[in-house]
TrEMBL record:
Belongs to the class IV-like SAM-binding methyltransferase superfamily. RNA methyltransferase TrmH family. Transmembrane segments: none annotated. InterPro entries: Alpha/beta_knot_MTases, Ribosomal_eL30-like_sf, rRNA_Methyltransferase, SpoU_MeTrfase, SpoU_subst-bd, tRNA_m1G_MTases_N. The lineage of its organism: Bacteria, Bacillati, Actinomycetota, Actinomycetes, Micrococcales. The keyword Glycoprotein does not apply. This is 23S rRNA (Uridine(2479)-2'-O)-methyltransferase. Keywords: Methyltransferase, Transferase. PANTHER family: RRNA METHYLTRANSFERASE 3 (PTHR43191), RRNA METHYLTRANSFERASE 3, MITOCHONDRIAL (PTHR43191:SF2). SUPFAM superfamilies: alpha/beta knot, L30e-like. The gene is aviRb. SMART domains: SpoU_sub_bind (SM00967). Residues 42-115 form the RNA 2-O ribose methyltransferase substrate binding domain. It holds the Pfam family SpoU_sub_bind.
Amino acid sequence: MSERPVGPADLTVTLANAKAERVKRVAALAGRSARSRAGVLLVEGPQSVREAVRHAAPRVRDVYLSDEAAARHGDIVSEALAAGLYVHLGTVEVLAAMSGDAQGVVAVVDSTGTSLDDVLAAGPRLVAVLSNVRDPGNAGTAIRVADAAGADAVVLAGDSVDPTNPKVVRASAGSLFHVPVARAPLADAVTALQRAGLTVLAADGSGDDVLGEDGAADPASLAGPTAWVFGNEAWGLTPEELSLADAVVRIPIYGSAESLNLGTAAAVCLYASAAAQRA
């Protein structure tokens, strides 16, 4: 690896061959097997790379920008260099070969696993659990919502999407670097959260409790430590999954819409808890 430049003015285009091995290795990180072997994730786009540099700098191996993107996003270059990170400029063609969705800004970041034990050791008061959420855009959006609502962690359960999927990273808009994300079987996660003193609420249209009304989902009850479980985008939560929760809660639908999408439902539920906990 070459010596780090001392400032933005010293950066020059050093990557000009879109078929170079380094470029191919970065592009290959779009695949799960390559990420797993290397123990890294691919971060695409200025917003996500900026948040990685700001909040996870010790994990950032390399930052790549096209010369045009470096001119537009000087803050990323300056902060990365100030953090002592390796910053590389490439041609527009090189960055496009690394990722066609990155707007000329890419980072390679160590993928550090967060365990359920790590989550519980921090004494969480608000946790989002995603069960069998397979669409990377939905998972990333839910992580972003959880971060915005001040949740302490997100747990991906069952056959949920790999959180290092570049589409998850991009949809989280950097929140993946703000909030811990763990993986665990749903039953194990629910049991551990309950033992840690959290009330586990399953969000589902079949619920007897209605969000905001007296019962398990009224503001007073939501003031305590709470974990919300959200199900698959297509079929929600199965009867077996629902039986694990302390209560099943439905969001009232006052209009004619059949239901809410995952991100919206997560926002409604998590913000209800966040508001109650801060009241």
